[in-house]
């Protein structure tokens, strides 16, 4: 539809003299905030890293997936926005609660109903991918001892981290306390980029302090350095432009500190506390039908009874081949 509009001469707002016209006084803080909100659409670039254990040949397929998906998504999103501008002015874009729906109403006529359905399907696909990958964060954290052990358990038949998925669902519902989508994006975006920057900085530190450790996927340090410069600009000016929103985001993040001291740092917990956690874990296991996953080469799992281990092995190991003589007797 965008190409058709351009061919019909509807490209007034794409001409440089109109496209770069200022509708308000330029502000460096608002520019940083615009980057923060716009980058939310491209936030999937890091989600594949959460499921490397479940990828086939991750050292080859992980970089390949990222190199293919980022340019593809960028191409689609940028040209979708170009299409919007052929039918709507910048003021109409800002006033619309659902730009794609307004675009459909202007150009598709009686077929405008296609756009809200398409948006819903796109949203469902995005949420599905986000839940699939984000739950692995809780799964990995529990496996390292930073979260309750039940989150590190998987279903005995499907081998999916059901407790981690349910925990992701609950934490997602808590985010809906605020009804302002842009405020929510600012909360999540600020916290995400704070952790992204710390992670990328850690890569540089490890490259300097431990240069000889194995690195199956290795890139030039120029890329993380450029990212950190952009990251610093984004966070500093976003904090300056929206100090209250970013401050609330920091406060949400810091709620994890007392949880860490209570659950991880505090070793000598009272027996009643441990008994309660054990009971909660047992009830969750029975409700979700989950156990600890077997590691390759492990003959037993610490903390599990023999009956549970045997049950886990029976579900996750292939059935033995039938003896030929026994099979012939059965056929007879």
3D architecture notes:
With 332 residues, this protein is an all-alpha fold. The chain has a domain at 1-17 and 44-111. 66% of the residues lie in helices and 1% in strands. The chain has helices at residues 2-7, 16-19, 28-38, 58-87, 90-95, 99-107, 114-143, 162-175, 181-209, 222-241, 243-254, 256-265, 271-288, 306-316, 324-331, and strands at 154-155, 290-291. The longest helix has 30 residues, at 58-87.
Briefly note the structural class of the backbone. Answer: mainly alpha
| Mean pLDDT rating | 79
Radius of gyration: 26 Å
Strand order of the largest sheet: 1-2
Low-confidence stretches: 299-332
* Shape by Cα distribution: globular
Main beta sheet: strand number and arrangement? 2 strands, antiparallel
* Proportion of residues in extended strands: under 5%
**Helix count, per DSSP?**
15
Number of strands: 2
Distance between the termini: 69 Å
Percent of residues in helices comes to: 55-70%
**N to C succession of SSEs:** HHHHHHHEHHHHHHEHH
Features:
mainly alpha, 15 helices
Provide a concise account of the structure shown.
The protein has 332 residues and is mainly alpha-helical.
Task: Summarize the helices and strands and which ones pair or pack.
Elements lengths: L1 H6 L8 H4 L8 H11 L19 H30 L2 H6 L3 H9 L6 H30 L10 E2 L6 H14 L5 H29 L12 H20 L1 H12 L1 H10 L5 H18 L1 E2 L14 H11 L7 H8 L1
Antiparallel strand pairs: 1-2
Helix pairs in contact: 3-10, 6-7, 7-8, 9-10, 9-11, 10-11
Organism: Octodon degus (Degu)
Main location: membrane
GO cellular component, one term: membrane
